[in-house]
Amino acid sequence: MITQTTLAALDAADPLAHCRERFHLPDGVLYFDGNSLGPLPRGVPARMKTVVEEQWGEGLIRSWNTAGWMDLPARVGGRIASLVGAEPGSIISADSTSVNLFKLVCAALALNPGRPEILSDSGNFPTDLYVASGAAQIIGRDHRLKVVEPQDVAEAIGPSTAVVMLTHVDYRTGQMHDMEAITARAHAAGAIVIWDLAHSTGAMPVDLAGCKVDLAVGCSYKYLNGGPGAPAWLYVAPRHQAAVHSPLTGWLGHAAPFAFDLGYRPADGIARFICGTPNILSLAALDASLDAFDGVDMRLVRAKSIRLGDLFIGLVEQELGAAGFGLGSPRDGTARGSQVSLTHPQGYAIMQALISRGVIGDFRAPDVLRFGFCPLYARFSDLWGLVGHLREIMATEEWNQEMFLRRARVT
Amino acid sequence: MITQTTLAALDAADPLAHCRERFHLPDGVLYFDGNSLGPLPRGVPARMKTVVEEQWGEGLIRSWNTAGWMDLPARVGGRIASLVGAEPGSIISADSTSVNLFKLVCAALALNPGRPEILSDSGNFPTDLYVASGAAQIIGRDHRLKVVEPQDVAEAIGPSTAVVMLTHVDYRTGQMHDMEAITARAHAAGAIVIWDLAHSTGAMPVDLAGCKVDLAVGCSYKYLNGGPGAPAWLYVAPRHQAAVHSPLTGWLGHAAPFAFDLGYRPADGIARFICGTPNILSLAALDASLDAFDGVDMRLVRAKSIRLGDLFIGLVEQELGAAGFGLGSPRDGTARGSQVSLTHPQGYAIMQALISRGVIGDFRAPDVLRFGFCPLYARFSDLWGLVGHLREIMATEEWNQEMFLRRARVT
């Protein structure tokens, strides 16, 4: 039996409890959607004021040098590297996840000429599939995207596989791929891997170097709390950096951007994957957001994440047994990212009813209610509130109202 | 003879004089580099506070709908459209100029199959040339970039030209191409045009629709004052929108992004050129920046811009005749963008000496001193200050000091 007392005791003993103060969390809201948009870290408003009013307003063009703007993609990348087990100089922050994935899919196909296939799975976030098939199409020749079921990926890797491109944690189910095993399997078959860490970065320890990952991308507005549409990031293993090339040959990926040569010469290292002028306001916000991870042991984050998910599943079964919810995520916490999905035929209306009570998760068609648990600010006792609201909504059939059935979808 | 009195009288009669208050301009600075980074518009800090603290901090994920975040690329695009004579629904703001140019070069080549050549000129900003040759390379087949001298573009257009890709105003010389004539010449030869309006947008009237331009991109951190690395924009003429496709097939260019279909289906209209999740903080800053153009007649902007440039050239000749400066821009104001470039063998050191006095222009290798005149905030009397400082620097050989000769280059 899970009780309020159980949960309060866990909060009292939580070694990450002090991190909650690093975020602004609105009054009257229980937030379980940090896997879609992380909340505002406390240091961001002051940093935005500095970058806008002092660096831009007073420093003007001089700030490209004096305020370190030019270094931001690499500096922010370096901070992200430390959260995902990447080597120094292997990550830059720039552009969107989709744009970065395009760069890497093209680069990976060129690393593996003669093999036509990009292999992915049906659990991948659609933009990854769209981008990969867009890249295959523009390159032409025989390149194609092959999509299999998540559990069939390993055995689908074969001699025609150029690239295995997967999202580590499934955005709907939270099911996690075994990064090390699939990477090893791909390498044994002569394929390159690209991992999308959108739902992993900041939510759990990741060991890109240890897993011998070739290429990776990630998102910064979910568990990294970088703000709406924050710049994404991109990883190239040091062993590949001299051989890979970005198809997006913008001036800031040039070896000497301010020489204004007419011909392109890629910069050494990861910098060649920068393209246009970096978006400084957003990079500065992300940089300030990353302070929330200062001194945080990602193993503690993972342990708390699993415990939050396990307790949520336990509470749903204890309190909502007859309400018709299915479990849309692995029951085994070690096979799950930092979210738990429930399924329900009325999932959409139920989520609307929850949101109108200030309890924010999100809905993914056709029937998934998705709850993200972010160990830096989530409290165990929040689960009691969440399940309590769900119980009331189901008991009173509050969801069964026109306003919840018809309301425009919250994205 | 141009005197301080002449200039003060022009300021007193300037119908745009009231616009200067729309910007924060630091004390003790004369700013002639708004063509590299526009100054901070007054409304931006409050807007950033709202988007960060209220929309993100309080609204969280709900703000994608309730604060109109999802519409920002099209809404900001619509505001830019009104400054460049574009049809409603023909511009979105997203990504960087380089990324947008890649989308359009690929799209344009696909519109004109069987023709191998992207034609550009040696006055184009290098990133445009890099991106075009990167696009040609990834597409492969016979595509190639051909670069001619600016004055030779029109006659170089021929039956193998798929795309004519030019920057309207040369970033070094300020020389302006005849957009209407070159577009007509390209069309007569069966080619598509892509204009880069980096140095035109916000500096002069542009008539994309009237000139029958096919495709265009532009930058928002120069004369639009959108902030460092502000999102760029992209134009597709309505007549082409159903037939052109972005190679960067990200989820927000999908017809139904939240259906999470596994297959890509492009959105109708310009929205298919959105790729990843829009960068909201930067788009909001740009949106607020555009308020500085409210009620502004771009013909007045152009008239003042030409006058500022003409007077600057006149003053340099009057005051600095023996100092060894050459004119690096057209003398005819109607053939010139909103900048005047001077050349001098010691240009780099001279610009450093100016900057150390708070007089900010920029230097472009090998010998170009570039001064941008932004009619919304430049005063005629500022020219007196600029030329006065230049005269002192040349008379005292202040530039001929170690610190100015050696200092790291201001970008």
Tell me the name of the CATH homologous superfamily of the largest domain in chain A: Type I PLP-dependent aspartate aminotransferase-like (Major domain)
Q: Measured on Cα atoms, how large is the radius of gyration of chain A?
A: 22 Å
> Biggest interface in this structure?
A-B, 91 and 91 residues
What is the CATH-assigned architecture of the largest domain in chain A? 3-Layer(aba) Sandwich
β-strand percent of chain A reads 5-15%
The CATH topology annotation of the largest domain in chain A reads as Aspartate Aminotransferase, domain 2
How many DSSP-defined strands of chain A? 15
How many domains would you count in the coordinates of chain A? 2
Strand numbers in spatial order across the main sheet of chain A: 4-10-9-8-7-5-6
> Helix count of chain A, per DSSP?
13
CATH first level of the largest domain in chain A: Alpha Beta
- What is the global morphology of chain A? globular
Oligomeric state of the chains present here: homodimer
Helical content of chain A (DSSP H or I, runs of 4+): 25-40%
- Please summarize the sheet with the most strands of chain A: 7 strands, mixed
The first-to-last residue Cα distance of chain A is 35 Å
Q: List low-confidence stretches of chain A.
A: none
Mean pLDDT of chain A: 95
Element-by-element helix/strand order of chain A: HEEEHHHEHEHEHEHEEEHHEEHEEEHH
